[in-house]
Amino acid sequence: MKTARELGLMPESRLAVGPDNGITDVPGVAVGHRSVRGEGIFTGVTAIVPHPGDLFRLKPRAAVEVINGFGKSAGLMQVAELGTIETPVLLTNTFGVAACTEALIRRAIAANPSIGRKTSTVNPLVCECNDGSINDIQALAVTPDDAVAALDAARPGPVEQGAVGAGSGMTAFGFKAGIGTASRRLRVGKRDFTLGALVLANFGAAGDLVLPDGRRPDPRVPASPERGSVIVVMATDLPLGDRQLQRVARRGGAGLARLGAFWGHGSGDVVLCFTTADPVEHDPAKAFSMQERLADEFIDLAFRAAAETAQEAVLNALCTAPATTARNGRLYPALADWLKESPRP
Questions:
Q1: One of 73, 133, 168, 267 is an active-site residue; which one?
Q2: Which one from 229, 237, 242, 278 is the annotated catalytic residue?
Q3: Residue 114: active-site member
Q4: Which of 127, 235, 287, 292 has its CA 20 to 30 A from that of 329?
Q5: Active-site annotation holds for 131
Q6: 62-79 pLDDT, tens per residue?
Q7: Which of 146, 208, 237, 269 is catalytic?
Q8: What is the three-class DSSP state of 109?
Q9: Cβ density class 118-148: b for 16+ within 10 Å, e for less
Q10: What is the predicted pLDDT for the residue at 14?
Q11: How far is CA 82 from the centre of its chain?
Q12: Nearest-angstrom CA–CA distance, 68 and 322
């Protein structure tokens, strides 16, 4: 399946695209998937690993923006309070949160046996969307072993997109969707940085999707209320403070709005943003530490990158996902098929 850019949907942007046009263009970031299949089962887990070291001991700075809080994620409250993350980020279906949480806790304890005994507990970070329209979510098919498999599969480089991992059973705007990613290059002063986004796209009412060229794809399904969700995970190597990270995360909402989203009552829309610059030590050697931070006068570059990558990542999730029939027999068509049948005027 081709990406939105390969299908000619993305106009020229003011910011350059990273070499793999994905969140893994940020140095050190890795992504892995575990797809879970079976009778009526179409789900999985996707892992985002911020850096290859011990995340509990060296915590990336982070912030979260809850656009609409209809969701059951784990760990976001502590991120909002402390401004750091200390485990990989796992994405899964709504009823898979507990299994993924257990896997992250056990993995952290294995690396740091003092957790919960001689030092603080660990904050597992799991975000979710409801894939119950395609997957039999009541089967509780996601297990801790699946989460571990996604973590073990995490690699830098090109990211598999579409109906894979946590995106297996997700839909958006009446079409089949799933995992999508994109990146932008930033030139600040004489230094180069990257901002990338990975989305779990499961939102948007049928008929509301707006393409960058203004067309409104018709999935040819009855209109329904907006009850989906979207998780946007952003990564950058740009040195940003906690407040700045939240401001960048908030601009992910601009990218979603460009697509026609209005964040309905039943939609859980969350943006998590972290930086690999200046991580926080679990056991600091000094009472005070120095932190490099971007001057606010230059932050518009990051704002633009956040909006552009969120928009393109969702379009990639839609373009790379094949048509899929749900358990009730409803067909979720592929956006790529609609594009073939509906050429530009």
A1: 267
A2: 229
A3: no
A4: 127
A5: no
A6: 999 999 999 999 999 999
A7: 269
A8: helix
A9: eeeebbbbbbbbbbbbbbbbeeebbbbebbb
A10: 86
A11: 21
A12: 28
